[in-house]
Structures are given as C-alpha cells and as structure tokens.
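Problem: given the chain below (250 residues), write out its structure.
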Amino acid sequence: MVLLGALGLLALPALVGHLFYRSFAPPEEGDSLSAVLFGQGWVGLSLCAWGALLLAELGCFSLRSLALLLALGSAAVLAARWRNARRWRWPRPQPWAWNTLLVALLFIGIGVLWAYPGEAILGGQDPGVYVSIGASIARSGGIVRHDPWIAALDAPERPLVLRYYLDQWWQTPGFYVTDLAGGEVTPQFLHLYPACLALFYAVGGLDLALLATPLFMLLGLLAVFIFVRRFLGEWPALVAAALLGLNPAL
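Solution.
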C-alpha cells in the first residue's frame, strides 16, 4: 500500500514538472535525458511543496485542493506558453554503457541504506517534531490549530497538563500555545518541509511520511551527481556520489 502511495505521489509532480519544464526551460544542447527527467521531477516536487505550504497557510490543505491548485496553475501556464511547449523536444538518450549500470547499482544500494527513517522519531528531538507537524497539517488542514480543550483550562489546571518552556506554554514538544484564551497552538520551525511531510502523510500515512526524508536525501545526492558529471564527466561524478552517499554524517 505504501509503495502504491509512493508511486501515486511521484506521478503528479512528474506530470506537473514536465509541463512547467517544457514551457520555461527547453533543453540545451548536450543535456542528457537523465538530467532532464531529474529537472522535471524536481520542479514538479517543488511546486507541489510550495502549493501545499500555501494551502496550509490558508488553513485549507488537502490532496483535493492541492490537485485543483496545480491543475489551475498548469492550465494557465499551458495557455500562456503553448507555443514554446509545442516546440519542446526530448533530448536523445545516450547509448547504454556499463557506467549506467554502475550508477544504477550505486543509487539502489544507497537508497536501501537510507531507507530507514531514523532513530529519533519520538520525544522532543527535531526529526520527530517535523513528522508530528506534518501529520498535524495533514489532519487539520492548517499550520495553526485551535484546541478548545486548552481554551477551557483554568489557571490552576495549566501546570498539570501543559509544560512551561522559557516564557511560553508548551502543549507538546515543538507545539507552542500562542493564545491560551483561544486555544491557539503554533508549531515551531519554518513550515515548508513539514508541508512536504504533510503531503506524504496525506497519501500514505505515517509509513510514507517517514520515508520522505530518505527520498529527499537521495534526490540531493542525484543532484550532486548530475552537477559533477556535467563539468567533470561520469567517473568523477560516480566517485563523488559514492563518497558523499557513504558519509556517516548524512
């Protein structure tokens, strides 16, 4: 089920990214097919993330509202850039080589290595807080939540059910009570990445949300590989990607 959700989640960014990419960034001479496919996927995923953040800021995040927003945006772009989109052509695929097989094996191996969400998913550490904020956005539809139970608390009851952190009441780690009278709860951090996690959570629940971070790490590694390959060639890029992917600091 998680695999089907992941495939469905990748299909929408790929389609949107293809449309925007061919409308605004026609391939240059020498662009490889893999670089173009990566660029389209990254553009599509970025648009989905920013769309999810915008809807979460407005308090109306859902998969249906995001799909509608992307459909309207795609239609507007297609109408404005139709002539440019029609002239776009796929770059020619490069001939198959053993290097391609090595690259594929490298990324499959590193992907398996990174396919674990991390140990610190509970408690007050940042990884768990990010996942909790993403789940909160997916469930409530917005970043800021209003909890009537908090608003109903009397002053003597607050220390019993809420923590006091510095100069701010704290409902749970990373969730600050910014208005006791109205029960307003505001998560900490910048909210673009939690909005991404909310997108994954809405598609495949907690299991898929936990795999979002390894996926973004793999995409970042692929970006490094493509960048180095463009200027230094495939073998230096392969070595750079291998060393970076096996770095325990990641």
